[in-house]
Structure formats: C-alpha cells, structure tokens
C-alpha cells in the first residue's frame, strides 16, 4: 500500500466543542468529508510526524472504522465513509507510515525534533 492509496479513502470528520456538542452554526464545526491523506496531513503537525500517538490514531481509524481524539479546546471524530475499506492492522500501519514518510520528506527542514515518551518518576519517600 502506498501513500497514494490514502487519497482514495474517504473520511467523515466532525469537530465537537470541548463539552462534546456539535456546533452546526459555526463553519469550523460542520461535519465534512475529506480524504485520509488530507486528515493525516492536517493533524500530523499537532500530533507529531513521528509520534506513536499519530500512528495509533490512524491505525485505529483504518482497523475499526472510527476514532475520536481530544485536544485542549475541541474533540475530533473521524469515521471511514465506506466501511468495506477497513483493513488489517499490518496493512494500516504500512499505509500510515507511508503517508508520514512522505510528509517527512516534503518538509524535512520544518519538522521539529519531538519527544516520543516522557516518564515522570515520583520522588522516593524520605526515610
């Protein structure tokens, strides 16, 4: 599977307000139909081009048909328009990685080095 295949997968995108309600009067919150390629490109900067979160979100979309993820001020709900395009996990990983690799190649100088994992250890109790 190539990154070009992602252009042929239609995704329904709905943005919900922070409290989970759809705001139909606001143009930004209108449900819209976009390609998988478009939604990966749109979210890669915020989620991270190399982050495991990015991969997990889009692999879940491709393997279950829907996913919802939240930011500080809104929640985004993505759903495959054609459920027959649900695929096996291995295929989904290959497709998403191909899209992300293409993005990295296009904007190699613009992608900041991102922290992949942050572990905060609790302090040891004082004796």
Secondary structure layout:
Layout: E1 10-17, E2 32-35, H1 36-47, H2 52-64, E3 66-70, E4 74-80, H3 89-106
Antiparallel strand pairs: 1-2, 1-4, 3-4
Helix pairs in contact: 1-3, 2-3
Q: Can you walk through the features of this model?
A:
This protein has a four-stranded antiparallel sheet with strand order 2-1-4-3. The protein is built from three helices and four strands. It has one domain. Mean pLDDT is 77; it is low at 111-118. It has helices at 36-47, 52-64, 89-106, and strands at residues 10-17, 32-35, 66-70, 74-80. With 127 residues, the chain is α+β, with helices and mostly antiparallel strands.
What keywords describe this structure?
34% helix; 127 residues; 3 helices; single chain; alpha+beta
TL;DR?
This protein is of the alpha+beta class and 127 residues long. It is built from three helices and four strands; from the N terminus they run ββααββα.
Percent in helix: 25-40%
Stretches where pLDDT is under 50 for at least 5 consecutive residues are 111-118
Rounded to an integer, what's the Rg over CA atoms? 17 Å
N-to-C CA distance: 58 Å
- Count of helices? 3
- Strand-residue fraction? 15-25%
How would a crystallographer describe the biggest sheet? 4 strands, antiparallel
Q: Tally the structural domains.
A: 1
The strands making up the biggest β-sheet line up spatially as 2-1-4-3
Order of helices and strands: EEHHEEH
Q: What is the SS-derived class?
A: alpha+beta
């Amino acid at each position: 599977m190539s990154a070009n295949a992602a252009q042929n997968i239609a995704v329904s995108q709905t943005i919900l307000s922070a409290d989970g309600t759809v705001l139909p009067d606001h143009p930004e919150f209108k449900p819209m139909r976009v390609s998988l390629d478009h939604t990966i490109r749109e979210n890669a900067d915020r989620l991270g081009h190399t982050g495991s979160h990015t991969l997990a979100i889009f692999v879940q979309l491709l393997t279950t048909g829907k996913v919802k993820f939240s930011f500080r001020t809104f929640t985004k709900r993505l759903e495959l328009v054609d459920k027959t395009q649900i695929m096996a996990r291995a295929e989904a990983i290959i497709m998403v990685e191909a899209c992300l690799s293409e993005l990295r190649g296009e904007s190699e100088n613009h992608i900041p080095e991102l922290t992949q994992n942050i572990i905060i250890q609790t302090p040891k109790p004082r004796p």
